[in-house]
Amino acid sequence: MSSPTEVSPLYQVLDAPAEPGAPPASPLPTPDLLRLYRGMVRIRTVDSRMLNLQRQGRIGFYGTATGEEAAVVGSGCAFEPRDWIFPALRQGGIALLRDYPLDLYVAQCVGNSADLLRGRQMPCHYSDRRIHFVSWSSVIATQLPHAVGAAMAARLRRDPVVCGAYLGDGATSEGDFHVAMNFAGVYRAPVVFVCQNNQFAISVPIERQTASAGIAVKAAAYGFEGVRVDGNDVLACYLATRKAVDKARAGGGPTLVEAVTYRRGGHSSSDDPSRYRDERVTEEWARRDPILRFRRWLEARGLWNDPEEERFQTEVKSAVDEAIRRVEAAPPVDPGSMFEDVFAEMPAQLRAQRREALGE
Ligand SMILES: Cc1ncc(C[n+]2csc(CCOP(=O)(O)OP(=O)(O)O)c2C)c(N)n1
């Protein structure tokens, strides 16, 4: 049982000592291991390209998951396609794991007529019911009661669906976090909360965010289990979340998974973290890079090598470049479309506003 003053040990798999005399066991079949690795490389490549687009003024905003890819991809792969994901800012990589077309991912950030959301959302607010991925609202933690509500609805319909409720450490200071945790605990909702504790909420460090010993311990107050995981260990993130998802699906109620990691970049493209933190700490975390760590693990087992790496990197880079080229060739959103999609039949005053706006 975790204590409120003592941080519980991290669950780790990549660096866990092998059983004496036993051959190194693999916790997953090779295609699953490679899916995790490729998923992490893909999101790092996409993030870096999208941040460049922002710097060049081609998109307005972007938030990367750099250094947090194991938490995103490890937990994201633990849910099944029928499960619903309620992300926060840094989980766009889960949409890509669900085979979301890169064109739609890029188009959401560009916000032109190729965008499914018709340019109405900020970048990094992907949403598509076909992949069971619900846009967050920008307002921190509001997605958590939504996730619990959707999980309850699924249970009432006897639909064996689990909801993934994603949050950052800063979201734990919001009322919505506590409302969602309490409701989930009381009704044993089939939901898994995944907190990417990247140590910062913009400039506010975790020590100023909570007086408890980490985040996972908070679950105890709501009557369910919290687990503290090495968030830079993709296998630990996968296995801990998978266990929680299986438990939720079997009627065992919610779990809070805390993936302890570090936000290596700025909060978003609008932030300069060197203004408020010691970047030597960032360099230390870079040495625990989740992608390199897993690559070494795979290479030691003969499952990955330099030529494979080069081939995959080239493939992803050219796929992203192609997607950007196609999306940027699309025309802007039709201004008249801003009056659509709220009312089944447009009321008279809206029709008048539309005529005025379009000069008709
Ligand atoms: C209710 C609310 N308060 C403040 C903000 C401004 N804001 C945007 S992101 C952010 C920090 C979020 O930190 P965290 O939850 O740790 O997630 P991270 O971005 O670090 O992944 C804040 C305070 C907001 N969007 N909504």
Can you describe what's shown?
With 360 residues, this protein is α/β, with parallel strands linked by helices. The protein folds into two domains: 30-329, Rossmann fold; 336-360, no CATH class. 42% of the residues lie in helices and 9% in strands. The protein has helices at 30-55, 69-78, 92-97, 102-110, 143-156, 175-187, 218-221, 234-249, 279-286, 290-300, 306-328, 348-357; strands at 84-86, 163-168, 191-197, 200-201, 204-205, 225-230, 255-260. The strands form two sheets. The chain has a five-stranded parallel sheet with strand order 1-2-3-7-6, sandwiched between helices. It has a two-stranded antiparallel sheet with strand order 4-5. β4 (200-201) and β5 (204-205) form a beta hairpin. α1 crosses α2, α2 (69-78) packs parallel to α8 (234-249) and α4 crosses α11. It is globular and about 80 Å long. It starts with 29 loop residues before the first helix and ends with a helix. The relative contact order is 0.16.
